[in-house]
Amino acid sequence: MIYYACPDPLAFVSGGNLLNAQIFRAFREAGRAFARIGWQDIPYIDFAPKDFLLVDSIWINKIQIRDFSKIKATKIFFTHLLPSMLDLGIKRIQEIERLSCFDFLLANSAFTRNWLDALMSGKSRIKTVQPWIKKTGMQESAVRDKFILVAAWQPIKQIDLLFDTLTRVDLPKGFRIHCYGDRQVNPSYTFKCMQILEKHPGLAEHILLEGVVSAEHLASVYVAGKCLIDSSRFETYGMALAEGLVNGLQVLALGQGNVIHLIGQGRGKYCRDLEELVQTAVLIFEDKLSLEEKPVQDILTSWPAFVSQFSFLDQIGRI
């Protein structure tokens, strides 16, 4: 039995939750017995040695080493993000001690894998499980003119700083950024972003709040898109960025982490700051700049290839 302790993938839209939903689908289609559980459920489950317990990295700070080490199942930690990746002042020894409780560590990208390998000094068994990234399969729109931002509203996405930067630029008439994403993840941060829009009513002409849309709707947005703007300061994978690249959008990004790897593919451009990002977006809007297209083979994956990333579970011989 596979138990995966993680948030409900449908609770809010994020790259991590989308990847978790893909994982559950892969387990289901492979005929694996599995259950999603909450962190609070772990003490009440009588794990057998043949069981697997996966733990989402969102709960790393809840791990009590003494209690956790008593669990008989094979313990696997799925790394979407670690606190030390965002705050270099965090004492890494605490993360190392908690991660040492696990038999395996899973990484959502080569970047994350390298980070874990350095953090654990090469002493942990690390596997990579990257998201399934595909083209929409829809016919390209005859006119690709949309500028889009796809992100859950939280501080790491720097949406407030993007809005603030837009107030200092002379934006051309008709330039609009369609913002897709969950605004309920961090209400206080959303309030901060909305205050900027209220303080600068002129931005209403250039910012359209689309909110959460279905995967099918987002696919139609990608094929009608001209440019995807990614204002995030850090991504361990960067799912929206990757989807934009494989679907032919020009993509502007400035974050660290796996962004550096992704942005070198497709029609991507790395910007040194938000000012350069906005100025470049305006040039693309005015057709004064068109980014060169490069191969995206490193990003595109097939569904069978995604599912095969879990073959190590069978190799352990305990399922």
Explain what the structure shows:
This protein is α/β, with parallel strands linked by helices and 319 residues long. It has two domains: 2-132 and 302-316, Rossmann fold; 146-285, 3-Layer(aba) Sandwich (Rossmann fold), CATH 3.40.50.2000. Helix content is 33%, strand content 18%. It has 13 helices and 14 strands. The chain has helices at 15-29, 65-68, 83-86, 92-99, 110-119, 159-166, 187-199, 215-223, 239-246, 259-262, 274-285, 303-308, 312-316; strands at 2-5, 34-37, 52-56, 74-79, 104-107, 126-128, 146-150, 177-180, 207-211, 225-230, 234-235, 250-253, 256-257, 267-270. The strands form three sheets. The protein has a six-stranded parallel beta sheet. Strands 9-8-7-10-12-14 form a six-stranded parallel beta sheet, sandwiched between helices. The protein has a two-stranded parallel sheet with strand order 11-13. It is globular, with a radius of gyration of 21 Å. 37% of the residues are buried.
